[in-house]
Amino acid sequence: MSDQKEVVVLRIGHRPQRDARVTTHVGLTARALGAQGMYLTTRDTGVTSSILDVAGRFGGAFFVEDGKGWRSCISDWKAGGGTVVHLTMYGLNLPDVEDSIREHKRILVVVGAEKVPGEVYGLADYNVAVGSQPHSEIAALAIFLDHYYRGTTLSQQYSDARVTIIPSAHGKTTQER
Amino acid sequence: MSDQKEVVVLRIGHRPQRDARVTTHVGLTARALGAQGMYLTTRDTGVTSSILDVAGRFGGAFFVEDGKGWRSCISDWKAGGGTVVHLTMYGLNLPDVEDSIREHKRILVVVGAEKVPGEVYGLADYNVAVGSQPHSEIAALAIFLDHYYRGTTLSQQYSDARVTIIPSAHGKTTQER
After folding, report:
1. Looking at beta carbons, which residues of chain B come within 8 Å of A170?
2. Shortest CB distance from B138 goes to which of A90, A127, A136?
3. Which of B2, B150, B174 is nearest to A133 (CA)?
4. What is the C-alpha to C-alpha distance for residues B77 and B71, in angstroms, rounded to an integer?
5. Which of A112, A114, B1, B95 is least enclosed, having the fewest CB within 10 Å?
6. What is the number of CB-based contacts under 8 A between chain A and chain B?
7. Dihedral, CA atoms, A43, A49, A55, A57, nearest 10 degrees?
8. What is the spatial distance between Cα B127 and Cα B121, in angstroms, rounded to a whole number?
9. Mean pLDDT on A82-98
10. Calpha distance B2→A174 (Å, rounded)
11. Distance from CA of B140 to the nearest CA of A (A)
């Protein structure tokens, strides 16, 4: 998919129950916009199974691994030659760094809930703001991936999908098999 | 801002408590990506005040009106010559309709929670999918606005901001006044 780029999301600081819906949106957005998987620093089988349920019906090979340590996750990624991009409203603005980031093919996108340890700002190769305004890590992830892939993943299809949505001007059309 | 376009979000089907955080993300994303305000079909003073609190500190004139009826909201918008864009994974794919939508300067973007009344699909001028995959209304809104404004709102500044974030490679820098 998308000339051999590898993108995985690392979701930090997820609190079960309180963050369940937002983290589910993070995971589904990651999958829909071209990431290959998500690491979650907390154990949460509910979130994990609801994302994998969608992936199972709509296709593709998206993975979720929960209970990962964020430090080892980041250091392993860097040791393997990958690049770490931390999305934060305090970072450099996306339009100013996206060309540079696009030269890297293996990206770990770090997305925090309320509190992100200060250490992450130092460990990240890029701290990136999707606009220097407070909004939503889901929105930031979506726009980051859309820019990184230059919009190509908006049209992706999965050959193994059990359910496929057929675009429609005024209704709901799905194909099941 | 952005050559006299007017964009307002209509959030349908918000359930207090259950949807509070997701709807807050919808409102903050709308503001950060260039919309002028949000109508909410339910009364929820908690969500309204937390969005207006951010807007008050970070600047701009974003409004939130809760307790609006969706039918009158849509029909008033159309009666005033505006265009209604409903974001749904069942719609026509964004890359195929964005040039056409960009010709319209007054846009009401309808964003549903779990259930959107079937009637909305008929009333909307455009039903638009941001990728034909299930993901997140926050992600869909973010990418729609970024495409509609051709990325220009990612760099917007507010002259009346009390708090301004200064982009930084590895830290957190804000300016207060």
Report:
1. 121-122, 124, 127
2. A136
3. B174
4. 10
5. A114
6. 171
7. 180
8. 7
9. 98
10. 37
11. 8
Tokens 């993070």, located at residue: A26
- Burial label for B99, CB within 10 Å (0-12, 13-18, 19+), is exposed
pTM over the 0.95 mark: yes
Q: How many helices and strands in chain A, by DSSP H and E?
A: 6, 8
Residues belonging to chain A: 177
Q: Give the C-alpha distances (Å, rounded to integers) separating B21 from A101, B1, B77.
A: 30, 28, 27
E strand or H helix at A127: strand A126-129
For residue A97, the model assigns a pLDDT of 98
Distance from A31 to chain B by nearest Cα, in Å? 8
- pLDDT for res A3: 62
- Which residue's structure tokens are 């050559």? B3
| CATH code for the domain in which residue B145 is found | 3.40.1280.10
User: In chain B, how many domains are there?
Assistant: 1
Closest CA to A51 of A70, A79, A29: A29
Chain A residues with CB-CB distance to B131 below 8 A:
32-33, 153-156
Smallest Cα distance from B157 to chain A, Å: 8
Q: What are the residues facing B127 on neighbouring strands? A: B86
pLDDT tens sequence for chain B (177 residues): 446 899 999 999 999 888 999 999 999 999 999 999 999 999 999 999 999 999 999 999 999 999 999 999 999 999 999 999 999 999 999 999 999 999 999 999 999 987 899 999 999 999 999 999 999 999 999 999 999 999 999 999 899 999 999 999 999 999 998
Give residue B3's pLDDT.
61
Closest residue on chain B to A59 (Cα):
B133
Residue B126 contacts residue B85 (beta carbons within 8 Å): yes
Residue range(s) defining the domain that contains residue A163: 6-176
Instruction: Tell me the average pLDDT across A88-99.
Output: 98
**Domain-located, residue B88:** yes
**pLDDT at position B114, please?**
76
Angle at A136 between CA B114 and CA B9, to 5 degrees: 55
Q: Note whether residue A1 is domain-resident.
A: no
